[in-house]
Specification:
The complex is a heterodimer of chains A (111) and B (112).
Chain A: E1 5-7, E2 10-13, E3 19-24, E4 31-37, E5 44-50, E6 53-56, E7 65-68, E8 75-79, E9 88-96, E10 99-102, E11 106-110
Chain B: E1 3-6, E2 11-14, E3 19-21, E4 23-26, E5 32-38, E6 44-50, E7 56-59, E8 62-65, E9 75-77, E10 86-93, E11 100-102, E12 106-111
Parallel strand pairs in B: 2-12
Antiparallel strand pairs in B: 1-4, 3-9, 5-6, 5-10, 7-8, 8-9, 10-11, 10-12
The chains are: A mainly beta (111), B mainly beta (112).
Amino acid sequence: GAGVSQSPRYKVAKRGQDVALRCDPISGHVSLFWYQQALGQGPEFLTYFQNEAQLDKSGLPSDRFFAERPEGSVSTLKIQRTQQEDSAVYLCASSDLDTQYFGPGTRLTVL
Amino acid sequence: GDSVTQMEGPVTLSEEAFLTINCTYTATGYPSLFWYVQYPGEGLQLLLKATKADDKGSNKGFEATYRKETTSFHLEKGSVQVSDSAVYFCALNSGGYQKVTFGTGTKLQVIP
């Protein structure tokens, strides 16, 4: 595709609900990353995939956060039992060589 | 661990003024350095990059030089435009799989 796409662009959830955020990377990109960007801050690393393998999940803030990429293309970030502190923009990026290309993000608001 | 420190904003400049946004870093090995830009309501876009010491990245009139001796990667532009108003993020990666560490961002506002 032309770029990284993410859906939904905006998500409002009530505290305690589960949410699923989708990322479609650039076609052919092996590496895929998820970041969390709090208001007024820079993005912070959550997790990394190489093809379907999740090689680093050290940035996931709790076991309520789960990510998958079963066929090595589309990825889903799932947050269970959402809390207010989960409110942020969730960014997906795919990369070739040493440059990451970011999607527009999903803005999650937990009420 | 890796870290990036950039000057706090907001930075307010008049159109055609000279821009410098300072960025310093701490990293293991020999990181690649980046500037990303985030325009209002849009996602992060790569502005420029440099992959080794003394390299100069440039794009759209913006420049930054990889200075290993001072661990810096300052962003400059000779004459800013209103359309340059955005948040600018300095970033690096030094991991084998390109995990990127970002600074906190500097908001630039250019007034006519």
